[in-house]
Amino acid sequence: MNGSPPSEFQSGLVHADSLGRLQVYVYINDFSPSNSATLATHGLVDALPSPSLHLVQGWVKPQNLEGLASLAFVTRITPPHYAQTR
């Protein structure tokens, strides 16, 4: 999987919900209804697509990250880049 190292997903930089799902950006090279359905089948929920950025923001259980990353149309998975106050 390209993108952030696994340690970044464990360092507190990622938001988690009450069900233990992590908020992630899934970068993909092809937006299609079929690929959206495949992401859901592999555990991505509450998906918000951003075609111009080639990413889908969503929530996934940690144990489903590897399955998402193995999909041919997924180019990388990263934690979101949260705004920070100065």
Description of the structure:
The protein is 16% helix and 28% strand. The chain is an alpha+beta fold and 86 residues long. It has a single domain (6-78), classed as Peptidase S8 propeptide/proteinase inhibitor I9 (Alpha-Beta Plaits, 2-Layer Sandwich), CATH 3.30.70.80. Strands 2-3-1-4 form a four-stranded antiparallel beta sheet. It starts with 21 loop residues before the first strand and ends in an 8-residue tail after the last strand.
Q: How are the elements arranged and paired?
A:
Elements: E1 22-28, H1 33-41, E2 45-50, E3 55-60, H2 65-69, E4 74-78
Antiparallel strand pairs: 1-3, 1-4, 2-3
- Estimate the global geometry from the Cα principal axes: globular
End-to-end gap = 32 Å
What is the succession of H and E elements?
EHEEHE
How many structurally independent domains? 1
In round numbers, the mean pLDDT is: 86
Number of helices: 2
Give the strand order, joined by hyphens, for the main sheet: 2-3-1-4
The helix content, as a percent range, equals 10-25%
* Largest pleated sheet: 4 strands, antiparallel
**In CATH terms, what is the architecture?**
2-Layer Sandwich
Please tell me how large the radius of gyration is.
12 Å
CATH superfamily (homologous) name: Peptidase S8 propeptide/proteinase inhibitor I9
Strand fraction equals 25-35%
Task: Please identify the top-level CATH class.
Answer: Alpha Beta
State the secondary-structure class: alpha+beta
Predict the CATH topology: Alpha-Beta Plaits
| pLDDT < 50 runs, ≥5 residues | none
Q: How many E-type strands?
A: 4
